[in-house]
Amino acid sequence: MLYAVVDIETTGGFASGNGITEISILIHDGVSVIDTFETLINPAREIPEYIQALTGISNEMVMDAPVFNDIAPKIYELLHNKTFVAHNVNFDYSFVKHQLSLAGYQLQVNKLCTVRLSRKILPGHRSYSLGKLCTALGIEINNRHRAGGDATATAILFGMLLQADAEGIINQSLNKASKEQVLPPNLPKSEIEKLPLNPGVYYFKDQKGKVIYIGKAKSIKKRVCSHFTGYSTTKQRQDFLKDIYSIDFEVCGTELMAFILEASEIKKLWPANNRALKRFEQKYCLYTFEDQKGYLRLGIDKFKKSVPVLYSFNTILEGHNLLKALIKEHLLCEKLCFIQKNRQACTAHQEGNCAGACVGKESAAAYNVRVKYAIQDLKKMLPTFAVIDKGRTEDEQSCLLVEEGKFYGMGYISHHTDINAPEELKSALQPYPSNDYILHMILSHAAQFPQKKIAI
Hints:
Largest sheet: 5 strands, mixed
Protein name: DNA polymerase III subunit epsilon
Strand order of the largest sheet: 3-2-1-4-5
Distance between the termini: 69 Å
Domain GIY-YIG: 197-275
Number of helices: 17
Number of domains: 4
CATH architecture of the largest domain: 2-Layer Sandwich
């Protein structure tokens, strides 16, 4: 079997937005290196200063070097039908495969990662970075952070791994049934093996145990593995491959519960690689407050975190429609509800539908009684119900509670719990923050599966 030990230098950290500045390929027959290829490459873009400082490769050095397309046939010839070997192989492979595909070549070969292999065959080292591992093993690296120097050191390391592999770990890794080579270099296979096939939420963690990404899944194990399949060249996936060291998870009874837990956990933990849900905020809300004259005021305004909310809306029109319905039903003043702003007296007062709170003809005490009735009616209008579904085991069932139009919380109850006893139900549930995103998911699910909804 022939191996191609590869190292590259690049202009940045992910393949789709960067180029290769240097490549070194050493053909290894399992005993020694039998062929070599090394060249600078013009990446057709500027090399950032910090990359120049790290590698010593400047814009001037690559100015007259071949572009990748010129050497693509040679590189493909060297790599085709060989096992691609590199230290953190997914990084080098993603760049080479991407550049070859742009040149019209489709590279499909087996891969071996000397980081992952070293962790298994040579356990116990404090670090498995190329520099520190080679120092610990007595491998001298000449010309560090250059493709030739790093590739030569990797080839020596690979030779040591071949000799020390008494348990056949390398052959096991090359087995097509083993998907280990697609995993991030710092993620042990045992972290994948422990994952269940149940619905739930998973947490990618970095070396310090900090959560860097949260996801939800119908099947936790399948969804997690899907992050590492294919050869996406986006920055987010490259960050995954580099930073994921461990995975935690929480099993949920249903996919809906996983959606809700994911949304809540993202807002709570604020992981670096989650974006869409972190940007979600309530938009408009119905508030009440007492003004300086003692009148209770109702009004629609943008969401404020520190102010109690009567109800929330995605659009200001939706809020105004509800507020106008309350005004009409309880003869409230449109001016005191901020529907009309420019008149001394509201239009309804002129028509006999407002007792004149807007011009001081109705006392605050009398007006406030109707406002309080309006708020009570609003609460009656807002739904209170539970969504009952399967649990994590056959001995329980899942429950989500919506109380007066707000998501209260969720959890697991026995089949004998009295659903229509709100306090008994609440004692078994974990409260969660409510927002329109979560409430919309629950309402949509209840509309789709009305048999799971139980009015309380």
